[in-house]
Design a protein that fits this description.
Blueprint lengths: L5 E5 L3 H15 L2 E5 L2 H10 L4 E5 L7 H11 L4 E6 L4 H9 L4 E4 L4 H32 L9 H14 L5 E4 L6 H10 L8 E5 L5 H9 E2 L11 E2 L1 H4 L4 E5 L6 H13 L1 E2 L8 E2 L3 E6 L3 H6 L5 H7 L2 E4 L10 H12 L6 E2 L1 H9 L5 H15 L4 E2 L8 H13 L11 H15 L4 H8 L3 H10 L7 H4 L1
Parallel strand pairs: 1-2, 1-3, 3-4, 4-5, 6-13, 6-14, 7-10, 10-13, 15-16
Antiparallel strand pairs: 8-9, 11-12
This protein binds adenosine-5'-triphosphate (ATP) and magnesium ion (MG).
Magnesium ion (MG) binds next to helix 7.
Length: 463
């Protein structure tokens, strides 16, 4: 039999605790402990986990509110229902603010009380589910939200952690969707500045004329739409971290102003005369090759050196394929609203073969779509929305062995052999169906089977 829900009843009137215990046990099927004093309740709460506690607000010495505070701190999943004598709404609302689930006035109506307990139990389950999900995610990510066991990713995370504690400027480089922003957050969150702001500026999405005033603020009337003075993001980030995302997209005039600021810590608002000073640590990111941008005259070399005191290069997802199953598991959990689905091995194999031009972001989107689309509790091949042309390329490269970075090509004959073998397997060695799918006659197929000496796995019975 399932374990009964555990309820704690606390009231200084013995007649009430007696009545509650009897009714809740007999009508609700719960297991009930009763306490006549706050101290007794706290003793019980230290030795047992209750699903729901019913607390009288007014009790001598240790009141129901004291017990509520204790529960809030020591047993956060226990749902508390307050019992009030006369409805003193002010106090009742106060207890809700302190974390009580609801309140019921005395004399209570038994049906209403049972209904309230039922709802409190549902809420408790939700709280627990959420907690389990969070712990589960934390277990996989180690709280940083960064998934991956590959040595390529591990060394990136290690370097980010090492540099986090210092004040050094860091430039994070990597293709789109590789996790640059995630690393920037990690650097901030593990730095002594973690309790100060992390301010991200996407330099590519802000029109260049506005970027300067976004960064450094402006004085009233400095340009037509500047109706009032505005603080710049560097001021907002004071004491914290300024994350310059897509830093390779800043125009040369703004690059010059940024350089001056990075060198001196001083800046002027647009239209302002006073020089201001802030203390920010700059982490920047780009998916451009900034060396090349420098060579081609689009990015200032001195600014690059200023930003790039330490550089962190993120690997492409296709170069750390061993992380794909972990990421898939993680995203399935993250995107599931209720029941966690599983993934069919064939679908996982396909995801592991694909070359992921959009990196982790693309994988995240594919899983999000699959979780939403799949019927039942398993994600199959048909639920994966990957650009079909690219997916075909993927299977071709899988056959030719290029997926592991080896560029060694198979001859057309070898390729044909593998392809025919696969098709035969797919149709369980039904030659007519296989020939039709391959667009050749059964006779040609027969000849090719002989030529390549193909045999089915259970060929004893078949051939
Ligand atoms: N190692 C990882 N573990 C878990 N999630 C990841 C990982 N890497 C990236 N992601 C997720 O993938 C998405 C893209 O990551 P992020 O925004 O950090 O990439 P980016 O390099 O800044 O991309 P872009 O250049 O396009 O801005 C985010 O939702 C992020 O949470
Ligand atoms: Mg980004």
């Amino acid at each position: 039999m399932a374990k009964k829900f555990q309820i704690l009843v606390v009231d200084d009137e013995e007649s009430i605790t007696f009545l509650l215990k009897t009714e809740l046990e007999e009508l609700g099927g719960y297991e009930v402990d009763a306490a006549l004093q706050g101290t007794e309740a706290i003793n019980l709460l230290q030795s047992k986990i209750y699903d729901v506690a019913l607390l009288d607000i007014k009790m001598p010495r240790v009141s129901g509110i004291d017990v509520l505070k204790f529960i809030h701190e020591h047993s956060p999943t226990t749902q508390v229902i307050m019992l009030t004598n006369v409805v003193d709404y002010k106090t009742a609302i106060e207890t809700i603010k302190l974390g009580a689930y609801d309140f019921v006035s005395k004399p209570y109506d038994t049906d209403q009380l049972l209904a309230t307990i039922g709802r409190a139990l549902e809420r408790r389950q939700l709280v627990i589910d959420k907690e389990v999900m969070r712990n589960e995610l934390n277990r996989i990510t180690g709280a940083s939200g960064i998934i991956g066991e590959s040595s390529a990713l591990k060394s990136v995370v290690e370097n980010a952690r090492k540099v986090a504690g210092s004040e050094t400027f860091v430039l994070i480089q990597g293709a789109s969707g590789t996790g640059k922003e995630l690393i920037a957050h990690l650097i901030h969150n593990e730095s002594p500045r973690k309790d100060r702001p992390f301010v991200a500026v996407n330099c590519a999405s802000i029109p260049d004329q506005l970027l300067e005033s976004e960064l450094f603020g402006h004085e009233k009337g400095s340009f037509t739409s500047a109706y009032s003075a505005k603080q710049g993001l560097v001021e907002v980030a004071d004491g914290g971290t300024l994350f310059l995302d897509e830093v390779g997209d800043i125009s040369p005039p703004t690059q010059a102003k940024l350089l001056r600021f990075l060198e001196t810590g001083e800046f002027r608002r647009v239209g302002g005369t006073a020089s201001m000073r802030v203390d920010v640590r700059v982490v920047s990111a780009t998916n451009k090759d900034l060396q090349r941008e420098v060579q081609e005259g689009r990015f200032r070399e001195d600014l690059l050196y200023r930003l790039n005191v330490v550089s962190i290069q993120l690997p492409l997802l296709k170069d750390r394929k061993e992380d794909i199953p972990l990421l898939v598991e993680y995203f399935i959990r993250k995107k599931s609203k209720s029941k966690i689905k599983r993934i069919d091995p064939e679908a996982l194999a396909m995801l592991s073969r694909y070359h992921w031009p959009g990196n982790v972001r693309e994988l995240e989107h594919v899983i999000e779509g699959a979780v939403a689309l799949s019927q039942g509790d398993t994600i199959g091949l048909q639920d994966l929305w990957i650009n079909p042309a690219l997916a075909r390329q993927t299977s071709a490269s899988a056959i030719s062995g290029t997926e592991n970075g080896s560029t060694e090509l198979l001859s057309l004959e070898e390729l044909e052999k593998i392809h025919i073998e696969r098709a035969l397997k797919k149709f369980s060695w039904n030659r007519a169906k296989t020939a039709q799918a391959l667009g050749i006659t059964t006779k040609t197929l027969y000849l090719k089977i002989k030529r390549y000496k193909l045999k089915s796995d259970d060929s004893i019975g078949n051939n």
